[in-house]
Amino acid sequence: MKLIEGDRVTQEDLSSGRVHKAPESFLNRDGIKTVVTEAKNGRRDFIRSAFAAAAAGVAVPAVMAQGNPVPAEGGDPNILNLPEHSKGLGQGVDPEGSYGKPSKYEANVKRRQSPGLTQTTQASVSFAPLQSLFGIVTPSGLHFERHHQGWWDIDPSKHRLMLNGMVKSPKVFTLDEIMRLPSVSRFHFIECGANTAVDWGNVAVPTVQYTHGMLSCSEFTGVPLITLLELAGADLKNGKFVLAEGADGSSMTRTIPMSLIKSGEVFVAYGQNGEMLRPEQGYPLRLIVPGVQGVSWVKYLRRIEVGDKPYATKDEAVHYIDLQPSGQHRQYSSIQECKSVVTTPSGGQVLLDKGFYNITGLAWSGRGKVKRVDVSVDGGRNWRTARLETPVLSKALTRFNLDWVWDGKPAIIQSRAIDETGFVQPTYQQLRAVRSTRSIYHNNAIQSWLVQENGEVKNVQVS
Ligand SMILES: Nc1nc2c(c(=O)[nH]1)N[C@H]1C(S)=C(S)[C@@H](COP(=O)(O)O)O[C@H]1N2
Ligand SMILES: [Mo]
């Protein structure tokens, strides 16, 4: 088994501080470190005793309870000294009203620019901190961003959605009119077709935030596009495609096949996770195209045109196309195929001691539900089936978990998802055989994380 080490991000880059080394790793957060320095027996024992304390009275895997708790000399000051918050009066609610924020101790958890991309003054991509998220919903403030021409906070009272082309009566809707129509709320993932792009050729970036962070999942609320098309009297027989157009300066225009719209799955959303869309996500209206790459989820949606052939716009003729080994490109390959990634332990995190860990990650498929996820800790030689957490929803992220006891030796952690169509997530070797090494989009290869003997976790590729 050969490991390909990163050539674009060196160890020197990591220590120079020019590259983020996942400071948000839950195992080496500042909060824990502070306590560790006070504990006599150092961080390794601290982690062990913390596990044992947490385990008291709770059903835990036997191996976790084995840890022999070593109390700090004289007892734990965090228990012995009554803290301020147990004595005084806490803060009151804001009489002016408020919008809640995360704890100040969670300030590390934020979306970030990737060290693997050209740094520009007007940055256009931010990556979601997948290593810090639980469950399947991406908090709206941590949703990844991809703006081709910057983002806007558009006045909803002035925003309009026009329906034209092959329709009996072209229509213009205000937001109020759209919000009066029957609505649906559905959980779906959105993944940029260029997610994991920089890793096509080689290992390129250190953490899961940058390898897989152009991925998010929300509960979206809105009106099925078919409802709006019917109101405009669209020619659903001869109209085979629609063109969706955004109101920002990027002239984002994408062709959507009518078959997807007729299935009722495509909808025009104004809601995200129980509130209005965030401006970065296309407030006040965006198209939701479940299973399809992010670029088709047109933000600031202002026009839908019904037509009888694909539009071959700039973002589908020359971008978001797949280079084949023959040198030809494949167009309109828009479904995000089955994919998964372990988010803990993942690159940049540090395991402080051998013993029990919960391997966790995300799986998804643009073709339906995830059926199974297998996890390997030996680089793909042996696999164990992970536990899928409910709900398992179609074209949404699915969370998986698996118990693991680390023996302190180097381990290569991988996950392999299988969807309800039977599609099995490919290895890099399998993917490169059909897609070459110089592709950009739609990289759904199995990700490998190397756990080194010193506990540091690194992004590697196994060939
Ligand atoms: N109007 C408009 N829609 C857009 C874009 C854009 O730049 N403008 N970017 C597209 C791309 S490439 C992606 S991956 C997703 C990103 O959505 P997000 O920023 O909400 O994560 O929106 C798509 N829709
Ligand atoms: Mo994208």
Rounded mean pLDDT is 86
Which spans of ≥5 residues are poorly predicted at pLDDT below 50?
1-66
Strand order, main sheet: write it out.
Answer: 1-24-23-22-18-19
Compute the gyration radius: what is it?
24 Å
Alpha-carbon distance between the termini?
6 Å
Which range best describes the helical content: under 10%, 10-25%, 25-40%, 40-55%, 55-70% or over 70%? 10-25%
Q: Count the beta strands.
A: 24
Unique bound compounds: the ligand Nc1nc2c(c(=O)[nH]1)N[C@H]1C(S)=C(S)[C@@H](COP(=O)(O)O)O[C@H]1N2, molybdenum atom
In oligomeric terms, what are we looking at?
single chain
CATH topology of the domain at 125-330, by name, is: Sulfite Oxidase, Chain A, domain 2
Note the overall shape. globular
Please work out how many helical segments DSSP would assign.
11
Q: In CATH, what is the class of the domain at 125-330?
A: Alpha Beta
Strand content: 25-35%
The biggest sheet, with number of strands, parallel, antiparallel or mixed sense and barrel status, is: 6 strands, antiparallel
| Backbone structural class | alpha+beta
